[in-house]
Design brief:
The protein is α+β, with helices and mostly antiparallel strands. β49 and β50 form a beta hairpin. The relative contact order is 0.04.
Length: 1033
């Protein structure tokens, strides 16, 4: 049999929930307090049913023969149901207390109630409250003592179930404590701050220290029409505990409300008795003096918060947490000066409550849970606060509790995320915060429930590995060689290399931009990484992979980038770079998790660099690197050649490797870039663009280039310059750590010995290395077949000079006494080509200004005579200044790009090679004196320019063949004539087959000296230090 009864409105229900160890032991204590003296039917009667209404809500109770109760109720919109069995009953003065074991109880499903309208239900119904003493690191259990509003009002909360529990305010019956200080309403400027009443703060503090973190039990006696509840609170689990109202009255911290006291109420009588005793003992407010000394001097505002924070020097100060706005923002009362300040936790941010236009607040996901987490651990607790910084009037600090650090706990439990802007000021170690956040991410708790790690798709071997650094790319990337032999480009995480911004970016548009030298501190950053990393093994930890991006407005396209933290010897390279002011740290959006795993260390390093004014943050003038690039600049290369030859071994850095034997070097002493060719070897040629099309790579060319790269790229080397070729490339020997690169290539069967090595000191070493590889038939010698010995013919050193003069037409003579000449035999082809080209251009004239000149390209240029000629671009200073070389005539000119056009394919050098060939005079030396040289040039121009002569090649030179030239009519030697007139000196050659010519020239020189002609007019100047006089022997 089961009966259901509805209790009358005069019945109030109070419930106590306490959590005990073990998953099954939950208990509910129901206390039925009967206010009316008349009960039509008692609860204890079986099979009776009554209905009534209560301002606390509606409920119904059913029971069975064995006293099993079924309870269902609704209080303040919070629905609960439970089944209970009584095991004993305890009589009470005003009713009965029935303890029940809870078999099943529904979870709390409502939201948190605002404190201005407290919930009518605390877990189940009006109850004796249990406050479980809690560790900061554990979740609160049972009904918690939540906050003390004043000396006679407290707020309690229930056990959290599926969310923050509801709260309930209980006012102590029959007593009154002093009102606490209250700040004037900000919206009402006419109002003033209300100070404490005497002994109000002491009463609140007494109650706070006695109750916070303790179990309490309470009964509700009266509930007003406005919902305010008055009752009694006992320390402990039941009403046998210490009566809090009595303790307050006994200590002289509260007065008894004597109006309306019933003579038959022993509780009220007891309070009056205690008050009389307190007065007699002069305790608390009954002491002499009136209590003016107990009124606090509250300070709600601080004129200069930054100075206030700095004056504390980051020392811990005592405080009481008075209010929690959200999980990471609290209002604290600083002791002993009573400053009431708002403190934001340094380094983190919790979900917040967004205020809508209508004034309501909408919580972000987990905002209420984060707030409850902080409230349940800190609210009205004694703590210590370290005030760390005050940016933009916001006080940042760290709250220290004896049981832990709330900042780290919020992160660990997934209630907060790290924020970079305040992380730098956190004094307890930013790495702890990152570690706590990382733990929450790995467990995917709360705000990280949908978190996906940036490297989640990578295997462990791809996330962390050891690699060898092969090349540094600018200042934020490097090429590393993996254990598998594969090369991989790695970008340093979260840093940005030096760059040009603003007006500097648009400056010198006409100048060819070279980032390494033109961007301030880029060269220093690259050199720092190069010296520290090149050729060494490093530890790589991949932090994230930045996806490829397409080009947008004003933004270039980027390929996929692997961003990692690189360390060597325990040193974070990115951090070292930032600390020296050679890079900056990238700032991210708060929700952007793709960043360095050591991001906080990078921010701290940047802060140190800014403070010390290093590198990019220095106020000094930026360093300027004037580096001359003389690659392909024949004239400049000729000027540098003597210096490099006399210097012997010079220091250099290999900037680029074009092929196995062709490199670009940076000469730090000379501050120039040169193209360097390895002497004495013939290396397989790589594929490259040629005027006639793409040149196919020779076998083992890629292997040779890779070998050279791994050995010398971006390393410091020594070079010996011997000569240069006609393109302005220097030729010589390169040494790295005592190893000759030419010899190394030959030893590894990646190059052959060139005949020009015969005159070098390394010839025997090269030949023996080549012979060993040839016998092993390695690489380039794999298909080698040795020729029969009898086929080797010994070349006699006694060969005679061959005189094979051919007719040429001299078109141009330079200041260095080099001249250009056309072969008379092919002159007809040139004339035909020019006529056809000009006719085609006249029919289809090029669009003026449509051609964009690039160095090394072939084009057509309009000369001063208005005709178009074939040319090659040598240098582009600006669109208005383009240096061109007329390939069929040998003269040079500076023209605007509007006088240039693309060369028609039918008239390119593939159909007819350039007709102007460069030559120099054999057997003569040009005077160094400018006036003397000008005399020689004038004489040659007058005699042979634009005339047909006879030319014979005598021997090869550094940049061009050296020849003797005869007048077309008289057959007289032009060079010999210069010697006879005393205009030049003789260049003595050692080749035996040329001795006859050399002797003739020397005899003519002696005759000129005897006659004191021209340069010999003061005698033989060579007897003195020739260099002082501008001549050389």
């Amino acid at each position: 049999m089961t009966s259901t009864g509805d209790l009358p409105c005069s019945v109030l229900m109070c419930a106590l929930i306490s959590m005990h160890i073990g998953p099954w032991s939950k208990w509910i204590f129901l206390k039925i307090r009967l206010i009316d003296d008349t009960l039509q039917n008692t609860v204890c009667k079986k099979k009776k049913k009554k209905k009534a209404s209560s301002n606390a809500g509606t409920f119904s109770v059913s029971w069975k023969q064995n006293w099993n109760f079924t309870y269902a109720g609704n209080f303040g919109g919070l629905a609960y149901s439970c089944c209970c069995k009584p095991f004993s009953n305890f009589p009470s003065e005003n009713g009965w207390i029935f303890p029940f074991a809870l078999d099943d109880c529904g979870d709390y499903t409502g939201g948190e109630k605002p404190r201005s309208a407290p919930s009518n239900g605390l877990g189940l119904q009006e109850s004796s409250a249990a406050v479980a003493a809690q560790d900061l690191t554990d979740a609160p259990v049972g009904h918690l003592k939540y906050a003390v509003l004043s000396g006679c009002a407290i707020i309690v909360r229930g056990q959290p179930r599926g969310g923050p529990p509801p709260e309930r305010q209980i006012n102590l019956s029959n007593i009154r404590a002093g009102a606490m200080a209250r700040r004037a309403a900000q919206a009402q400027p006419d109002t003033k701050d209300t100070p404490d009443e005497p002994w109000a703060f002491q009463a609140r503090e007494f109650l706070r220290k006695k109750l916070i973190g303790k179990e309490v039990c309470f009964t509700v006696e009266i509930k007003t029409a406005l919902g305010r509840e008055y009752g009694m609170v006992y320390l402990g689990r039941d009403t046998t505990g210490e009566n809090i109202a009595e303790v307050l009255v006994n200590e002289g911290l509260a007065t008894v409300r004597r109006e309306g006291i019933r003579g038959n109420n022993p509780e009220q009588a007891r309070l009056c008795e205690l008050e009389d005793q307190s007065k007699a003992s002069k305790k608390g407010m009954w002491s002499e003096g009136g209590g003016a000394h107990t009124i606090r001097d509250m300070k709600y505002t601080i004129e200069n918060p930054r100075n206030f924070v700095d004056s504390l020097h980051q020392k811990p100060i005592n405080a009481i947490i008075e209010h929690v706005r959200d999980g990471s923002v609290v209002r604290a009362l600083l002791l002993p000066d009573y400053y009431l300040v708002t403190v934001m936790l340094s380094g983190i941010k919790c979900p917040t409550f967004k205020r809508e236009a209508d004034g309501t607040e909408t919580p972000e996901p987990f905002a209420a849970e984060a707030k409850f987490f902080t409230e349940s651990r800190l609210l009205q607790r004694d703590v210590q606060i370290i005030l760390e910084s005050c940016p933009n009037q916001i006080i940042l600090g760290t709250i220290l509790h004896p049981n832990g650090n709330i900042t780290e706990l919020l992160l660990k439990e997934g209630f907060a995320r790290c924020v970079d802007w305040s992380m730098a000021v956190y004094t307890q170690g930013a790495e702890k915060l990152r570690a706590a956040e990382r733990s929450a991410k790995e467990r995917k708790v709360r705000i990280w429930k949908d978190y996906v790690a940036p490297t989640a798709n990578l295997d462990q071997k791809d996330r962390q590995f050891v690699a060898k650094v092969m090349q540094v790319v600018n200042a934020d990337a490097m090429v590393v060689k993996l254990n598998s032999g594969e090369n991989k480009t790695i970008h340093l995480s979260s840093i940005r290399p030096p760059r040009i911004e603003g007006e500097e970016k648009n400056k010198d548009k006409d100048k060819r931009f070279r980032p390494l030298y033109d961007i301030p501190y880029m060269f220093e950053a690259r050199e720092f990484l190069r010296k520290k990393l090149i050729g060494k093994k490093v530890n790589v930890t991949v932090d994230y992979i930045r996806a490829a991006t397409g080009p947008g407005e004003g933004t270039p396209a980027f390929a996929e980038r692997t961003c990692a933290t690189v360390t060597i010897g325990g040193i974070n390279i990115a951090e070292a770079l930032v600390s020296k002011g050679l890079a900056t740290v990238i700032r991210y959006r708060q929700d952007d998790d793709q960043r360095s795993s050591h991001y906080d260390e990078l921010l701290a390093a940047e802060a140190r660099a800014i403070k010390n004014g290093k590198g990019l943050h220095s106020k000094k003038e930026v360093p300027i690197h004037r580096v001359a690039d003389i690659s392909g600049e024949t004239q400049k290369a000729k000027q540098f050649l003597p210096f490099l030859q006399r210097a012997g071994r010079s220091e250099a850095v290999v900037e680029y490797v074009f092929s196995g034997s062709r490199l670009k070097l940076y000469m730090p002493k000379e501050t120039c870039l040169i193209t360097f060719l390895l002497a004495g070897i013939e290396c397989p040629r790589s594929s490259r663009n040629m005027p006639g099309g793409m040149q196919v790579a020779e076998p083992f060319s890629d292997e040779a280039m890779l070998f050279t790269k791994e050995l010398v790229l971006q390393r410091e080397v020594e070079v010996e310059v011997e000569s240069m070729d006609k393109a302005g490339n220097f030729i010589g020997w390169l040494h790295i750590e005592g190893l000759n690169l030419s010899v190394a290539l030959v030893e590894n069967a990646l190059s052959k010995v060139h005949f020009t090595a015969e005159r070098s000191a390394y010839y025997k070493t090269l030949v023996s290395a080549e012979e060993a590889c040839r016998l092993r038939k390695e690489k380039i010698w794999a298909n080698y077949e040795e020729k029969p010995v009898e086929e080797v013919v010994h070349v006699s050193e006694e060969k005679e000079r061959v005189a094979n003069y051919r007719p040429v037409y001299v078109t141009e003579i330079s200041d260095t006494l080099h001249f250009y000449a056309q072969d008379v035999e092919t002159g007809g082809q040139l004339e035909s080509l020019m006529e056809t080209m000009r006719a085609e251009i006249a029919a289809q004239p090029p669009l003026e200004g449509s051609y964009s000149a690039r160095r090394g390209e072939y084009c057509i240029a309009k000369f001063a005579d208005g005709e178009w000629y074939r040319a090659r671009v040598e240098k582009v200073e600006s669109p208005a200044k383009v240096h061109v070389f007329y390939i069929d005539y040998g003269n040079r000119e500076i023209v605007p790009s509007t006088r240039l056009a693309a060369i028609p394919p039918a008239f390119s050098t593939r159909n007819l090679p350039a007709q102007a060939t460069e030559y120099a005079f054999a057997f003569i030396q040009i005077p160094q004196d400018e006036d003397a040289r000008a005399d020689v040039v004038d004489c040659i121009v007058r005699d042979i320019q634009n005339s047909q002569c006879l030319l014979n090649v005598e021997y090869s030179g550094v940049t061009c063949p050296l020849v003797t030239i005869q007048f077309g009519d008289t057959k007289d030697d032009v060079g010999l004539g210069l010697v006879k007139e005393g205009l030049v000196m003789v260049d003595v050659r050692k080749e035996k087959h040329l001795q006859k010519m050399v002797t003739e020239y020397l005899n003519s020189q002696e005759s000129a000296k005897s006659a004191r002609l021209n340069i010999w007019r003061y005698g033989d100047f060579r007897a003195d230090d020739a260099d002082e006089f501008g001549y050389r022997r």
